[in-house]
Specification:
The chain is mainly alpha-helical. It has 6 helices and 2 strands; from the N terminus they run αααααββα. The relative contact order is 0.08. It holds the Pfam family HTH_32.
């Protein structure tokens, strides 16, 4: 298969596994549910809770937020940077637009 399709083709073991599943009667391509800890969904309630904590104390750390809301530090980091658009300047959370303005001022005056 690599001669015909190149390096981006599927491995034989993957194709064989798919064929076994199809022959066993499985027609759905979605993964089956797995046991274990479910992911915490980043919903509007969690996002607003993080935003409220930051507005109350702009020097709060991601660890403190994670402990307060009982979510992971990675989830807090994702919410702060991707959903809310905050960044740290001088140990304070500020919106990203303020960071861009400050960088321009430093570049102009340097």
């Amino acid at each position: 298969m690599k001669e015909v399709y190149g390096e981006h083709c599927l491995a034989w073991c993957t194709i064989f596994r798919w064929c076994q599943r199809y022959e066993a009667g499985r027609l759905d391509i979605k993964d089956l549910p797995r046991t274990g800890k479910a992911h915490v969904v980043t919903n509007s309630v969690t996002i607003s809770a993080v935003d409220e904590l930051i507005r109350q104390n702009s020097r709060i750390t991601t660890r403190e937020i994670a402990v307060e809301l009982s979510i992971s530090k990675g989830t807090v980091h994702h919410i702060i940077h991707k959903k809310l658009g905050y960044g740290k300047i001088c140990a304070q959370w500020v919106p990203s637009i303020c960071q861009r303005i400050r960088r321009r001022r430093e570049w102009v005056f340097a």
